Amino acid sequence: MKAVILAAGQGRRLSGEGVFFPKVLAKVAGRELLYRHLKLLRERGVEEFIVVVNPWTKGPIKDALLRWGFPFRLVINERPELGNGYSLLQARDYVDGAFFVVMGDHVYEEAFLDEAIRGQGLIVDRSGEFIDRDEATKVILRDGRVRDIGKDVPGEWYDTGFFILDREIFDHAEAVLKEKGKVEMSDVVKRAELRVTEVSGRLWLDVDTPQDLKRATRFIVRRSVKPTGDGLISRVINRRLSLLISERLVNRLSPNQASLLSTLVGLLASLFASISPPLGGVLYQVSSILDGTDGEIARSSMKESAFGGWMDSILDRVVDFSFLLSLGLFLGPGVSWPVVALAIFGSLMVSYTSERYRAATQRDLYEDIPLLLRIGGKRDERIFLVMLLCLLEMIEECLWALALWTNARLLAVLFLVWRKGRKGA
């Protein structure tokens, strides 16, 4: 199946009058609008993209398409002032059968596309949960088809800018062009009385202004949180703060750079822990909050990688080892090094067992054994406890608590995984 992406808009509301900025190359949550369409639709079976552009922005868009490596055909709309329906007409010679049409300046989440690609005609949304409803194009329906459409019509449905069409649509576009001298998609949709498919409550946005970019970034980042695995402290404290940080860093830092930032703060915490445990404990907690940003940035910017996940896991272990060793050094000659060793061993093994389970089974430990989330002892919870005890200057008690808690959890993990394995066998 093919997809036509209408990208001939001049982007003046986004970049200002007199500036022909390729709006589809604007970054939302760390990725260009156009790249998001290409990647998500490619993953859903689209074999070729027909990208319709204007003469002024064809250069940078073509360069980006060549760099990304998706199969594409670039089509020039020499008269973009004639409307986005005229852009659709330029794709007439390059599609056959059913095809998708996507407005290039829209954002869609994966769940939206999963439902939309199974529909037909115009995809509409009844909730308008994420959009500026006053600016949105409304639709009036009759017997499951479009009766009227426009920004000023009193409709209860919203045009999402996503279509599943066939070649008959070009005849309607030609007729509108002859009647009006220009052709907008809304006119074509109305004349064709397109069937509609409802996809409501899913994230989609029309990006026209810098404010739209910020709002889209915020929504995408906040929907990038992994569904399982967060400990209590992450759910209640850390994730709320890390999302605020990720919203501001996603267009500036790569996931690996975010990992390094978290690690540097963690190593700084380790340095201070051997001098001033209260300050070190606070910085340790800050590094734990920042540790959530790399995953949020990776998921929302479509830059997840096996190497990134591996590196993040290794760096977390380096920080944990360094910090707990520094607490032992702070206590001096009177410290019980077996307790320090058990605290370090248990802290490292709790994370190691989770990672090894994922590597061995390709599944998430906390999805398979949800009880472990109620037992406690995940990294975010341990670090928060360490911070509290460091602030109270209960350093020896902190090490004892970690030694007992983490190793008890380790035994629980081993038992629960063993029991699950026996049941599976």
Using only C-alpha atoms, the radius of gyration works out to 27 Å
Helix content: 55-70%
- Strand coverage percent: 5-15%
Strand segment count: 13
Count, helices: 17
Largest sheet: 9 strands, mixed
Number of domains: 2
CATH architecture of the largest domain: Alpha-Beta Complex
State the fourth-level CATH superfamily of the largest domain. Spore Coat Polysaccharide Biosynthesis Protein SpsA, Chain A
- CATH class designation of the largest domain: Alpha Beta
List keywords for this structure.
425 residues; alpha/beta; Spore Coat Polysaccharide Biosynthesis Protein SpsA, Chain A; Four Helix Bundle (Hemerythrin (Met), subunit A); nine-stranded mixed β-sheet; two-stranded antiparallel ribbon; 13 strands; elongated
How is this structure best described in words?
With 425 residues, this protein is an alpha/beta fold. It has two domains: 2-220, Spore Coat Polysaccharide Biosynthesis Protein SpsA, Chain A (Alpha-Beta Complex); 228-424, Four Helix Bundle (Hemerythrin (Met), subunit A) (Up-down Bundle), CATH 1.20.120. The chain is 56% helix and 14% strand. The protein has 17 helices and 13 strands. It has helices at 12-15, 33-42, 58-68, 84-89, 110-116, 168-180, 185-192, 210-222, 232-249, 255-273, 277-300, 306-331, 337-361, 365-368, 371-375, 379-391, 395-424; strands spanning 2-7, 27-28, 31-32, 48-53, 72-76, 99-103, 106-108, 121-125, 138-142, 145-150, 157-165, 196-198, 204-206. Strands 1, 4, 5, 6, 8, 9, 10, 11 and 12 form a nine-stranded mixed β-sheet that branches. α11 runs antiparallel to α16 (379-391).
